[in-house]
Amino acid sequence: MNFLHKSIQRRWPHDHLSGHSGWAVAEGLLQSGLPVHLVNHLVTMADLHRAGRYDRMSNDVLTLTGQAPLSVLEFVRKNAPAFTASANAA
Questions:
Q1: Which residues lie closer than 8 Å to 21 by C-beta, 6 or more apart?
Q2: Which of 4, 22, 58, 73 fits 17 for a cystine, CB–CB 3.0-4.6 Å?
Q3: Residues whose CB is less than 8 angstroms from the CB of residue 24 and which lie 6 or more positions away in sequence, other chains included
């Protein structure tokens, strides 16, 4: 998340969903009424993401739109105002 913090020039709060703190987040999701299978899925996806299992690329965006895709960093930089406190207050 450091790239996000640097791109928007402020901290962006987030929680990790694995390990001790992740289970605390998961417990909060369960208490808010989310089904067990959904919370388990979110925790599993967070673990897989952290392990790099979603780090894949394809040419689908280019094929479908004729334009190269933006990286997450490029997207955040291009849309930084949407991540600012003033945009979120609106």
A1: 15
A2: 22
A3: none
**How many independent structural domains does the chain possess?**
1
pLDDT tens per residue across span 48-90 = 877 888 777 789 999 999 999 988 788 888 888 887 766 555 5
- This model's pTM is above 0.70: no
Residues found in the chain: 90
- Considering just the CA atoms, what is the radius of gyration of the chain in Å? 16
The HSE-up count of residue 12 (CA atoms within 13 Å, CB side) is 16
- Tell me if 50 sits within 8 A of 25, measured CB to CB: no
Distant-in-sequence contacts of 25-29, Cβ < 8 A, 24+ apart = none
Task: Please choose, from the candidates 43, 48, 1, the residue with its C-alpha nearest in 3D space to the C-alpha of residue 24.
Answer: 43
